[in-house]
Design brief:
This protein is α+β, with helices and mostly antiparallel strands. Helix content is 64%, strand content 10%.
Length: 304
């Protein structure tokens, strides 16, 4: 006997990704031209960030479209993990960009170049507003790993615009050009932390790790304490995608006739306490369970 409880999640948020893509690519061209004319590494780096943001947003949009496709005979769970793969690709790509910009910044420290601070300030200020707008649009959407990956790139751009604005101001008022590559290195370090965290979360999903906000023993003890449950074994908890947490377990009960009521109590506990609603539970009568494992069933309220 096998019971499966499933709640369908909403589609990925495609619209903010598309609008973010259009706005980001348009201003990336403006910043690239401005960075080349002014000689600012911070501004060129920010333009590079925005160009890669366009790729990240495009990748996210394609993944969001795939995630909306229904399950089929080959992908019985659907296409939800396309968004996880997009998030992982964005995180890895961002780390490569950070390495490239960091190397350029070190070279610029060793060989300073003239920078037109006034032009850098003007373009960076506009870029900051553009990035705030795109980040706001993405933040309003559901925070899937895919959206987080795209938002990571945009926040990197936002910080890059702040760095370029500060660098332009310092150079304009003091003439001290090393501030440009120094701020670029600082922003690279900050973005690297977020990139590694996103990469870790994507790997967690692909490895079917127990979600970090949950504890397998705590969930197991809670379910074993539900009225009508004698014991619990083969408990597994994992993420199907960014939004769906799945759980499966074998549940030992006194009699299969009481299973519908026990199942309802288990389902209510999982949804209310742990926000888990993609549930697969296998009932086993106590008599057969004892016959299967002899007398070593142990404490009926603990995991076997």
């Amino acid at each position: 006997m096998h019971d499966h409880v499933h709640h369908h999640q909403g589609d990925g948020h495609l619209r903010p990704l598309v609008w973010g893509l259009v706005i980001t690519l348009a201003f990336a061209v403006v910043e690239a031209v401005g960075g080349w004319l002014s000689g600012s590494l911070a501004l060129l780096g920010d333009a590079g960030h925005m160009a890669t943001d366009g790729l990240a947003l495009a990748l996210g949009a394609v993944a969001a479209l795939l995630a909306r496709r229904p399950a089929d005979r080959q992908l019985s769970f659907g296409w939800g993990r396309a968004e996880v793969l997009a998030a992982m690709a964005n995180a890895v790509f961002m780390l490569l960009i950070i390495f490239a910009i960091g190397s350029a910044a070190i070279d610029r420290l060793m060989d300073p170049q003239p920078v037109r601070g006034g032009m850098v300030m003007a373009i960076a200020a506009i870029g900051l507003l553009v990035n705030v707008l795109v980040a706001w649009m993405l933040h309003r959407g559901e925070q899937t790993l895919n959206i987080r990956g795209a938002l990571l790139h945009v926040m990197g751009d936002l910080l890059g615009s702040v760095a370029a604005l500060l660098a332009g101001a310092v150079i304009f008022f003091t003439g001290w050009t090393p501030i440009d590559p120094l701020l670029s290195l600082l922003i690279c370090a900050l973005i690297a932390v977020s990139s590694l965290r996103l990469l870790r979360d994507a790997v967690d999903v692909l490895m079917e790790r127990v979600p970090r906000e949950l504890s397998l023993p705590v969930v197991g003890r809670t379910l074993a304490g539900v009225e009508g449950v004698r014991s619990l074994h083969d408990l597994h908890i994992w993420r199907l995608d960014s939004r769906t947490i799945s759980l499966s377990a074998h549940v030992v009960v006194d009699d299969l006739e009481c299973w519908p009521a026990v199942l309802e109590r288990l389902r209510d506990t999982l949804v209310r306490r742990f926000d888990i609603d993609h549930i697969t539970l296998q009932p086993e009568p106590l008599s057969e369970h004892r016959h299967w494992i002899g007398d070593s069933i142990g404490d009926p309220k603990t995991l076997d």
